[in-house]
Amino acid sequence: MVDVQPQFDWAFIVGHINYWLFIVLMMTGFYIVVARGNLVKKIVGLNIFQTAVFMLYISIGKIAGGTAPIFPINMKIDPSVV
Q1: Pairing with 64, which of 18, 32, 34, 75 sits 20 to 30 Å away (CA)?
Q2: What is the pTM of this model?
C-alpha cells in the first residue's frame, strides 16, 4: 500500500487564496465582535464577518467553464409557464 502525503506548498496556498482570505476576514470580524465593547465597532466586526461568509459562498459556487444563467433576448418563453 502506498502512503500518499498531501502536499502543502506554495502552489496549494496560492491555489486556495480565496479560502485563506475568507479565514483571515472571518477571524478579524469575529475578534472585533468579541474584543470590542463599543457597539458601533461590533457592528463593523459583524459586517466584516458577513462579507467573509458571502465570499465563501461565492467561492464555493464558482464552476470552471460556467456562465451566468441569463436568457438571450430572442428566446421564446411559453406563456403557460409564466
Answers
A1: 75
A2: 0.65
